[in-house]
């Protein structure tokens, strides 16, 4: 059963469906039968065969006579939605040498054309049904399976039947013609190109080394150019017929309908499916084996020193064992829990060493069952310098200590408390578990050949394991994790000559002395022992906000709070703190400290608590401490629970009132920033991440990514000098939404945020800061050091900002999605030159400037002009001609369903109402949100397009390979483009 998240598909290729094509054709539909093939009363459901794990009674499992297995379940989160998963037990490991990439290519082709879906109409079909392309309609191809996913909102029986019909046609009868294969291969190759570059080369070489001799070494879902270009309708059909069969198929349907009805639709559309020919057994994936003559005590096998200039150093080695199917019993799961505890203990020790200024930036051990190919324990770390041998020795020394003697009772208790809190939280939140997640859990369980369990069962198994746990037993499990048939390693370095394969092999085989100081011996810390934030505050004003039962509380010190106590999400409380002036308050000369603040401000500590103490004081608790900078505010955020809310509020308030300034987190952040900087130039996406925000802000130095020179000049003292006054800056707004007691929440706020000293207002010059937008002109060209066939392009127009324009911003979101659909069609469907262009609208509401509409694509260098041309033509066409009613419906229906779904959660209301204590207009504008986002007219869209696009050329950025020149191409007029 699935106990903890396990990286079972480390090499999976997760992606949006490349091409959904559909036109519903009319045919005689079979009548829905009464389900006949569910598990008989008293029988064992197929997923629990060979297991003594108690059955989750909310699931109904069945198996049809043709071999199709299914699982259905009633679930109303979110209301009205049905989540459908169709899993085929075939991924890239099932491919022959001439078929590399076929499993993933088939994933694309099933959406291009099938029995009920004609050419080029599937995206509109799903959109009209309210499903958002890319999130509600998705798929994944991994080494071991292909899974098709549909989250369908606002479902009724007719919509369910229609969707199951369309999916059945895709899975059972795709049109695998030469023409469709020829049309789809360029799109897959575009996807492959975008994922290429130094990182991919390093990953490929690492995979070939770690899984040498196994299918996984040479088979990744994306395939090769040679095999994809050689694909034909006949060759792809052969792969399809071999693996797309009823007995290889599992269908999961979870949703807000009667489970009997869900099962009936599975049987209706898949019950008469028959495979062609005899079934083919799954191929042997191979086992990891040591080379002949290897030392049984230290069986070092294949290693690779991989040189990729521009990439940061990273070292991975694995202790590998053959993977074998298991009997998924309670005893087996108790063993998994002990394994997880052993890893958690070591990881905490490794992290403590890194925090204290060790030789590595990070280090982690993790046991994975990888693609049913190996049961391995992976060790990964990032050396801080070229002394990788010293970092490897330090990491191995910590592990050696864990192998030498049992952990202390204190260490064990600390990890047990963390596990118990996580499992108890799952029990609390069971009734609000999303249907999509439940459906994915079944798919994942089938993939790793294990059962599923209710949260209560997981907690029960954990408690039974805890009763028998001893330090000696945990030591036994630790030793098993680090024993295996072979050890393999890969080291990625930017410097040639830094390491050879022989060097790696010798370092791994060298004896290591256990680190005597690796263990963390520390006393527990209690919030009760900490000093108060200050004298409890007084409430100056209190009353209803005017929306639902949400309440506003103002304190005498100027802090304002918004609270909504409700039980919509049991066991979950969201807390957000907004303070200060955000990016407006960062001085142009202090951009390096803004970047470091995002990495190190929380770790620098709170009052008497450093980072290690913060970890210890939150042991067994559900607490968080996320920090972010927006244009107009700094923010803290956490999701906690009722019993931890008061202490969560204490941490946030104490950070403002009693900040600590530990040096080590800042030094570690500096090291991380230096190591990662050179990697930005390795591909177009890296350049975009490094420079786009800076360029779109008209070269505002606050948004410049710090380069090595700026990082070298930064100091912990400078960090404190910048951030200490910013933490004193107001105003302060606290939002608390979720499952808590209202009176207890107000009392906790009074003791914490009500007790902080009055905040200092931002200087007038800061408050009046505006954010610029670059003047359009010649295309800005940046250069990357990656592959010669990779490029990226951005085109952007300035838009608006501020609360007053919220209704217009929502209408602009509709226009942006229309633009997105058109650009997607132009660049991907027609040319295959770009995999997934994206258009976004950004409309800041905490400031009155800085809004923009931007379009982005990764593509070939020679296709950059075509992207700019397509975007310009679409922009001008939208300004000249109103979009059609059907085109708008394809956008507004998914937006309507999206709002209906997300508005059932507390975060929706929190995000909509944050900032309303400073600008109450937000409250009134909330009432028009649904209409603003879902109701419009073609004429209104045209007026918006004229306002933001008409007669205005977009600002352009092209990122191309070093040594190349940007091609030029005259931009066609709308009439020339044949609009």
From TrEMBL:
Domain of life according to the entry: Bacteria
Signal peptide: 1-27
The UniProt record lists the keyword Lyase: no
Signal found in the keyword field: yes
GO MF annotation: an example: metal ion binding
Keywords associated with the record: Hydrolase, Metalloprotease, Protease, Signal
Domain Peptidase M16 C-terminal: 232-415, 722-891
InterPro entries according to UniProt: Metalloenz_LuxS/M16, MPP/UQCRC_Complex, Pept_M16_N, Peptidase_M16_C
Gene3D superfamilies cross-referenced by the UniProt entry: Metalloenzyme, LuxS/M16 peptidase-like
Start and end residues of each Peptidase M16 N-terminal domain: 81-194
Family from the record: Belongs to the peptidase M16 family.
Record-given protein name: Insulinase family protein
Origin species: Erythrobacter mangrovi
